[in-house]
Amino acid sequence: xxxxxxxxxxxxxxxxxxxxxxxxxxxxxxxxxxxxxxxxxxxxxxxxxxxxxxxxxxxxxxxxxxxxxxxxxxxxxxxxxxxxxxxxxxxxxxxxxxxxxxxxxxxxxxxxxxxxxxxxxxxxxxxxxxxxxxxxxxxxxxxxxxxxxxxxxxxxxx
Amino acid sequence: xxxxxxxxxxxxxxxxxxxxxxxxxxxxxxxxxxxxxxxxxxxxxxxxxxxxxxxxxxxxxxxxxxxxxxxxxxxxxxxxxxxxxxxxxxxxxxxxxxxxxxxxxxxxxxxxxxxxxxxxxxxxxxxxxxxxxxxxxxxxxxxxxxxxxxxxxxxxxxxxxxxxxxxxxxxxxxxxxxxxxxxxxxxxxxxxxxxxxxxxxxxxxxxxxxxxxxxxxxxxxxxxxxxxxxxxxxxxxxxxxxxxxxxxxxxxxxxxxxxxxxxxxxxxxxxxxxxxxxxxxxxxxxxxxxx
Amino acid sequence: xxxxxxxxxxxxxxxxxxxxxxxxxxxxxxxxxxxxxxxxxxxxxxxxxxxxxxxxxxxxxxxxxxxxxxxxxxxxxxxxxxxxxxxxxxxxxxxxxxxxxxxxxxxxxxxxxxxxxxxxxxxxxxxxxxxxxxxxxxxxxxxxxxxxxxxxxxxxxxxxxxxxxxxxxxxxxxxxxxxxxxxxxxxxxxxxxxxxxxxxxxxxxxxxxxxxxxxxxxxxxxxxxxxxxxxxxxxxxxxxxxxxxxxxxxxxxxxxxxxxxxxxxxxxxxxxxxxxxxxxxxxxxxxxxxxxxxxxxxxxxxxxxxxxxxxxxxxxxxxxxxxxxxxxxxxxxxxxxxxxxxxxxxxxxxxxxxxxxxxxxxxxxxxxxxxxxxxxxxxxxxxxxxxxxxxxxxxxxxxxxxxxxxxxxxxxxxxxxxxxxxxxxxxxxxxxxxxxxxxxxxxxxxxxxxxxxxxxxxxxxxxxxxxxxxxxxxxxxxxxxxxxxxxxxxxxxxxxxxxxxxxxxxxxxxxxxxxxxxxxxxxxxxxxxxxxxxxxxxxxxxxxxxxxxxxxxxxxxxxxxxxxxxxxxxxxxxxxxxxxxxxxxxxxxxxxxxxxxxxxxxxxxxxxxxxxxxxxxxxxxxxxxxxxxxxxxxxxxxxxxxxxxxxxxxxxxxxxxxxxxxxxxxxxxxxxxxxxxxxxxxxxxxxxxxxxxxxxxxxxxxxxxxxxxxxxxxxxxxxxxxxxxxxxxxxxxxxxxxxxxxxxxxxxxxxxxxxxxxxxxxxxxxxxxxxxxxxxxxxxxxxxxxxxxxxxxxxxxxxxxxxxxxxxxxxx
Amino acid sequence: xxxxxxxxxxxxxxxxxxxxxxxxxxxxxxxxxxxxxxxxxxxxxxxxxxxxxxxxxxxxxxxxxxxxxxxxxxxxxxxxxxxxxxxxxxxxxxxxxxxxxxxxxxxxxxxxxxxxxxxxxxxxxxxxxxxxxxxxxxxxxxxxxx
Lengths: 158, 291, 812, 146
Prior knowledge:
The structure holds four protein chains of four kinds. Chain B has helices spanning 14-24, 37-42, 78-83, 85-90, 92-98, 104-109, 112-118, 124-131, 149-152, 228-234, 241-254, 265-290; strands at 7-9, 28-31, 50-53, 63-66, 69-73, 135-139, 144-148, 153-155, 158-159, 166-173, 179-186, 196-204, 210-218, 225-226. Chain B is an alpha+beta fold. A five-stranded antiparallel beta sheet of chain B has the order 4-5-10-6-7. A four-stranded antiparallel beta sheet of chain B has the order 11-12-13-14, with helices on both faces. Chain C is of the alpha+beta class. Chain C has 20 helices and 28 strands. In chain C, the strands form seven sheets. Chain C has a seven-stranded mixed beta sheet with strand order 3-5-1-12-9-10-11, with helices on both faces. The longest helix of chain C has 28 residues, at 558-585. Chain C is globular and about 90 Å long. The termini of chain C are far apart. By secondary structure, chain D is of the alpha+beta class. Chain D has a single domain (2-145), classed as START domain (Alpha-D-Glucose-1,6-Bisphosphate, Chain A, domain 4, 2-Layer Sandwich), CATH 3.30.530. In chain D, strand 2 and strand 3 form a beta hairpin. Chains in contact: A-B, A-C, B-C, B-D, C-D. Chains A and C meet through helix 2, helix 3, helix 4 and helix 5 of A and helix 1 and helix 18 of C.
């Protein structure tokens, strides 16, 4: 028999309460139970980075986190980045610099860029590539993603 | 790729963990950072009946200096070790090594205790435990014991931890001031499991004489490998190209790697030679810069 | 037909992709985002064995599990579905959507469970007991053709499942008369696109109407929609097939999903339910799709001054356990452009498709071309060395001249336009070839191993369906039952709404190529408005969107054929609007101009009507329309190529419709201690005809070259000697990350517009994926020349290169 | 995957042979072997519970002592399947006696298939070697217990 658990958490500053099986992955909980479709699932073993979210202020793989572990947590997904309809400068930069092609890895990439620029507002290209290396993108060859992040740093300095 | 069903406990204290372990023993698996365990659970390679999630044990999350040791709580995140000023100043090689662990989001969750309990012979932290002569505190409801890293790892993914036990702390002696180190890691891609990783920690006096030496390798043996023979060759000697060559050869001799998809045993052994050499060269360079 | 550049305001500009506005918000609409009421979830049980007989399957325990709604077993399949046919393959070879009585590769589905969610479905898989009788596996093309090799398909009695000897000119004569010949054996390994979004299917069956609705991240060609209807024993008009608006990457691989669609549709039919199947990463690696591998024996004949006179080659193709259409086209898709950019006339290809205990092969970016160009560009470098010629010089000598276009290749293609030598010259200049050679010499003195590699190739776009029929012998094609195939059309629908806004509907299944924004640019130009005012929906729905068998996103066809269809449709609607404006303004249509959302009389811009007004008239006031003109403003246009002819009796076929060109030059440095290769410089020059959007094209080029860097140095669809796929996760199948990808490419363009397309554009998305592997291999061998190392096998892992260096040392 | 190695025992060859072919001892020596039931001479039904760290799996299969030539050589065939996949192994085991010691050498092919092979290849050959080590270590103990 499977024990269920009630969890309460904040996602993109909205409060949620739900009953989950302990084995339910946070990625599935966000996508299926809360219909937050910006969390993409690409490998479920922590390699591709598509499911990356920000949990209590830190980047984590939602496929390597159990929903029950997010009890009481503050979660941010890519949906939480734009404030009252206004795109975040990083989102603008991805748009202006063709930083996405198929868009599937984009939510994770954007959030990692966001957390990178929060702790290092002026990263070198190597630092950008280092930080983004945890994300696989099969479309862009990463060039336009790196360019987007460079452009975002300029925007955010303004 | 969805986990099998399991029972889940998230105890609030170490005592609670011990109670659970005494009750559930072999059926239970400790969940720390989960960055190695959860992939195995998602693949259904690992099918634990019970998970004991220790992430609420804040008491095991600390880095502190205590009479000549750096003491790190078992639940301390790899990221915290990477960023710790204390470690940067006292054991810089540890901060360097941690950077090679996968990627930031993984290091944000992965813990020191979890990594060494998993005992992957390619894991940077397992290697560092051997190289830094760390001691691991293993506790149970009954008693507490300190185990030297040398004796801690038995073989692939296997340690001396008993089903009813829990790692609570890891401590490592602070290296002498004249210590010069180098950490080398060689992998297919950034963030991959290393084909070989090498830690070189030497104590060199002002005359350039090597007074203490630790050389340890990862992924060339069922457990991280400390090469005493190679270390002995260095004691009382001055580092030079010839000696470095000889020590590197000795290290390669001592490695007993198993082949995998990415590298044959011969290749791994050759890389052990290469990167030991590179490490010793870097130490020599650093010494000359200091002098 | 192609328009001069001056005319276009938006085409040719780096207009940003509107699609990204939803991607950065996490609002893309992918297959897994589609949810239906009380939908069930499917999971497949897959064989751990590469080759085994299924003696018994017992699923009773699984069916008893709470939450499980049903199961479909292999032995049910032949009673409810048909085997998939493939061109040039005996119908005796049975290929179903699931293993029936025998598994032929590790990961082949043997049972499908449907349950309330994927977790429970996977629990149920653990409860299914399969009794296997293991059989010896074969994973090597040449071993599989030996006397005592295990046979995959007993009913055929051989593992050779397709064989053609294609001969143009007189190769034997050429080799008899050759001044010089070179030959070698090459091994091209198997790798794939591994899109980050795995395959996904939703099948909803309505028993009442016997009607099936399908959703899948399928990219076409829609010829396969008819194939899957056949397999399902259903009429096409009983299947509605919807492709989600966004697809998370394909690179050709998602063409292969039709096999899974059939399996999921069958289980949905069996239980009369809606079923969702989302493939996980491990399933994608063992069961998704991969490009074929190839073992080749290549001979090249030439004159003493380096003019290629002929090529004679034999291929053993690793196509896996079955033949998944459009395979065996991995060998034939490039047939028209086998000769690449070179002017030799005599060629023989002995093509052998071999069944192995591996996942079946499927189309992947470059489809067949990268293997052909690897052989030809490698052997050409060997010829150059033998004649002591520079690789650039020997290529320059052999490239087709500008004045030879349109150029008829000996194998039946018509290269529509090009200036190949200009591309090579531009590449040499951008790369600073002479300077780099000097640098290489200097580095050699310092004991550094630096190498330079060149590769050139013709980049075919818009497959002509006829390419598939190369797999048939002329005799087979002569049979009455054989239906000739040709064509490469695409359809667009354009409408102007009563308020003057423009909507375009496409069915080109975009998977990262910014179709919507490109079409917006094209149509905006036609109407003289801004792309922002054009709404484009690129979402195939076979029930409502017009399409033809070739419709889809593959063979770099969009930029060439889809934009042509959209431009034509837009022109037709605009013509009508011009007529209306002329009628209302009492001017003659020839004098009406359109710009900035207005129609005005040439010379007197103040006599004008807004688009809104003209559109309003067409919809609201038909009474004021010219007599006989019908109400409304919409049309559908299909663009097809007159050049899309069927194959001739002597195997000549124009296998594609437009042909671009590219030259790649790479400089690498090899670390002899580790065998690791560093990319020092990479220059790539492309002719894709008219460039529609430089930024989009740049993105495709970076993507293609990064995938090839992956294929050459990191990625390997590795099977062990027992047929176990040992790279079934992203921890072992190593895709390049931002750290391995090139920081900067020097990209150049030469534009020779295609006379065949409306805008002069050609495809450019596969591009360097076809030439990069050869360029890199040539560069690595050039670097290792001082050590006498020959590179004739991929992938070039550090271990492999180190091994080659050790062997070379022992030789000495 | 190739498997080969040599072990030495300070015991008479006949004794080593006895232990290496006797289910009672094999049951103890084969890592994770829960039971070994003789179904026909030299052929046994085997249940193996193999657990390395969190990776635990139960394999049902058979073990066979094939073409025995006491006390010199036989083929050991082991086969089993379970949720993580399957294991297959066949080795020629040869015994010889030199200066008061029995030398046991094995040479064969091991095969691991399914889930583990697909996603765990990195550790397989190492773990196989490790388990063979455990096997012969236990055989040594069994010999002492005689």
